[in-house]
Amino acid sequence: CLVFDAALNLVDRRPALRAPWHLSYPFVFEAEGETWMLPEAWRSGTLTLYRATAFPFAWEPAAALPLDGPAIDPTPFFQDGRWWLFYTGARDEATRQSELRLATADHLLGPWTPHPANPIRRDRSGGRPAGTPLLREDGSVWLPVQDCARTYGGGIRMLHLPACGSGSLSSTLGAPLSAPSDVRIDGMHTLSACGAVSLIDVKRIERSGRGLMIDLARLMKS
Question: Which of 191, 212, 211 is nearest to 202 (CA)?
Fold first, then answer.
């Protein structure tokens, strides 16, 4: 957890949650008078929803959310009196970068039901969630998605979908978002809302001996 002052100066940095498996994509949101976090932890074999007991540094497990397999980058939102959850499957690397899935529930703690048409989208250019959904006044949803066509986390696009309860799962993919010309990056990973501030997680590749060993290990696994 990073804590900034009003001028966006970093004033504190501490772990918020530890687990014996990889944690990422800490989707934090408020609902029902509580603050919640739904991080990706697919190597644990399930999806766990956490409740803040002393925000932002203390969390407790609130519920396990079993779906149709471990979920990558789980992205919940509330619309038309129901909870909805975008996520990507974890079967293999191609699935993790291309298959967008959807689940729904009457209550945040579940039970959650995967959509019968899953995956609702297959596209490396826009099939993996990448941040906070934007709910439009007409009921449509604009979902940030990762553009992995060139490389993992290569860019961000906005995926336009009708209201999830409308029965239509058609979607339209927007153009890649561009970074300022004076910022040197090699990709954009997530676009997240934080009150009046928007946060963009970007990557920059810097070659090193350790990095080359990591790349080699990944190639040997693939």
Answer: 191
pTM for the whole structure: 0.89
**Torsional sign, CA 113, 89, 133, 168:** negative
| Cα dihedral value 142, 67, 73, 104, nearest 10 | 20
Tokens 């800490």 label which residue? 26
Which 8-state DSSP code applies to residue 137?
T
Torsion 35-112-38-51 (CA) sign: positive
For the beta carbon of residue 126, count every other beta carbon within 10 angstroms.
27
pLDDT, average across residues 79-90: 94
Cβ-Cβ contacts under 8 Å for 135 (sequence gap 6 or more) = 77, 79, 141
Expressed in percent and rounded to 5, the helix, strand and coil fractions of the chain are 10, 45, 45
